[in-house]
Design brief:
This protein is an all-alpha fold. The chain has helices at 10-14, 22-44, 46-57, 67-75, 77-94, 97-116, 130-161, 167-193, 217-229, 231-242, 249-254, 258-269, 271-285, 298-312, 315-327, 334-359, 361-382, 390-404, 407-417, 424-450, 460-484, 493-506, and strands spanning 201-203, 209-211. It has 22 helices and 2 strands. The longest helix has 32 residues, at 130-161. The radius of gyration is 24 Å and the shape is globular. The relative contact order is 0.13.
Length: 507
């Protein structure tokens, strides 16, 4: 229930700052962006730790640690991502955006510490068995819930505190932080490993493996623990700092705490502009109820499809197999490959950050979609005809670069700002949940699709088909954005409320 409006007296208004503070805005956005960094850190930390983790549990005597079990363990955080994103609307509306970020930070911290020492108060340290595996996966799922919450609430919070003219830029920094977090954890894992070596896993049966006697025991027993535990430092800092940022002014206004909302708005925008924004929030919040379909089905459909297309274009699957293409060019060092991809990703995310307010959301999405389509089709073509080895490499780089200045950051920008105030929490939760669901669908279907064989083409058919499919989806995504997605550049969040209400009334 909406609380009674707080009294806003002339004396209170006179006490507010006449000019907004950019440094204050940037400081609170920076804290929220740390949530994005943790998002990237948590999802990528498994890349360096999974082999040591596999070697550790291969030592279990009460069960056989198979590829299937290892696959589930390596991706168990994704279960939490789906749960966390689905619950993010409830958390954001009931506890508020700020408290939801604090809760996400606590989940990150518990997951990091628990993954580092899953035996704590339960089992003997260093003895692998099924019970310990279950506990470890529970901690990873807890971290996934934090990722799911952060992935929805961080861009939502940034959008709700940001002025309209720089909102897209500031929300895009969240995507930069995600990519930067992934790059950071690659270096952290590399430094933790140091002079030690990853375990050597030997196949002794169709689905049975063992750890070679020549493997470094430190990486089997300890290395993977340090990799997971390293996240605790960033998680603790984020949790503490999130306690000191203000609550979202849109959330405060929706709860009837208009005096508190005006205080935050004035500190960011100045008293006069803050009053103007608050009046706009009042008008938009009175337009419709908080029922999800108050503004019609189309706004929900567009938000969901933006999330679906961000994953359906196949970026995660394509980037996962990119190292094989680089290896064909003689770049066999995995660290070099990940660093190269990380630099490309960060560089082109910066393109979006510095152009999103000038060019708009739709032009970047359409251009990126077409560029990704060309890149994916280039890889598909290289599996049908003989082409120079540079063609698939350049195609993958083009595909990745185009994603990073379009669907990577801009999808989050649009999801955070396209929904009306009164349904934003629930609508963002649904859209982001679909994003994680399709992340799982794409990731789980890529390998069997990639390995399909047909006649004389053999497995090259599967290679061609997978990238051809992603290329076609990219073209469809460009059409979808062109025809259905409204441009939000320069519009306030309240403008979007009126836009959807007007569209609904015209029907």
């Amino acid at each position: 229930m909406k609380a009674t409006n707080q009294t806003i007296s002339p004396e209170f208004v006179a006490s507010l700052p006449s000019a907004g503070s950019k440094s204050y805005l940037y400081s609170i956005v920076l804290v929220a962006v740390l949530g994005g960094l943790l998002f990237g850190y948590d999802t990528a930390v498994i890349s360096g730790a999974e082999k040591g983790l596999q070697a550790f549990f291969l030592g279990a005597r009460d069960f056989v640690y198979t590829d299937v079990i290892h696959g589930i363990t390596s991706s168990s955080a994704l279960i939490g991502c789906i749960v966390g994103s689905a619950l993010s609307g409830f958390f954001a509306n009931y506890f508020g955006r700020k408290r939801s970020l604090v809760i996400a930070g606590v989940f990150f911290l518990l997951s990091a510490l628990g993954s580092y020492y899953p035996e704590f108060m339960l089992y003997e340290k260093g003895v692998p068995h099924m019970g310990l595996l279950v506990v470890f996966n529970i901690y990873r799922i807890i971290g996934g819930i934090g990722v799911g919450l952060a992935s929805a609430v961080c861009p939502m919070y940034i959008a709700e505190v940001s002025p309209a003219n720089i909102r897209g830029t500031l929300v895009s920094w969240n995507q930069f932080a995600i990519i930067f977090g992934q790059l950071v954890v690659y270096f952290v894992n590399f430094m933790i490993l140091g002079e030690h070596t990853q375990p050597v896993i030997e196949r002794i049966g169709e689905t049975v493996y063992q750890v070679s006697a020549s493997s470094d025991p430190w990486t089997v027993e300890t290395g993977w623990r340090y990799m997971f535990g390293s996240e605790a430092f960033v998680a603790a800092a984020f949790t503490i700092l999130a306690c000191f940022i203000p609550m979202s002014p849109r959330f405060l206004a929706m709860k009837g705490r208009e005096r508190s909302a005006l205080s935050v708005l004035a500190r960011i925008n100045g008293a006069e502009k803050g009053r103007e924004i608050l009046d706009s929030i009042r008008r938009s919040d009175s337009v419709a109820s908080t029922r999800l379909f108050s503004f019609g089905i189309m706004v929900i459909f567009i938000g969901v499809m933006l999330s679906v297309f961000q994953q359906a274009v196949g970026i995660n699957a394509v980037l996962y197999y990119a190292p094989r293409i680089f290896e064909s060019m003689g770049m066999g060092n995995p660290m070099v490959q990940t660093v190269i991809m990380g630099i490309v990703n960060i560089s082109f995310t910066l393109v979006a950050i510095f152009t999103v307010e000038r060019l708009g959301r739709k032009p970047l999405l359409i251009t990126g979609s077409l560029g990704m389509g060309i890149g994916a089709l280039g890889v598909a073509l290289s599996n049908v005809i003989d082409v120079p080895s540079a063609v698939p490499v350049v195609s993958i780089m083009l595909y990745s670069a185009c994603f990073m200045f379009s669907w990577g950051p801009i999808c989050w920008v649009l999801i955070s700002e396209i929904f009306p105030n009164t349904i934003r929490g629930a609508a963002v939760a649904i859209a982001v949940a679909f994003q994680w669901i399709f992340n799982f669908i794409v990731s789980s279907t890529f390998v069997p699709m990639y390995n399909m064989q047909l006649g004389a083409m053999g497995d090259r058919f599967g290679h061609m088909f997978a990238y051809l499919l992603y290329g076609v989806i990219c073209i469809v995504a460009a059409w979808f954005v062109w025809r259905l997605v409204p441009e939000t550049k320069g519009k306030t969040l309240e403008d979007m409320t009126r836009l959807w209400q007007n569209r609904r009334n015209r029907k």
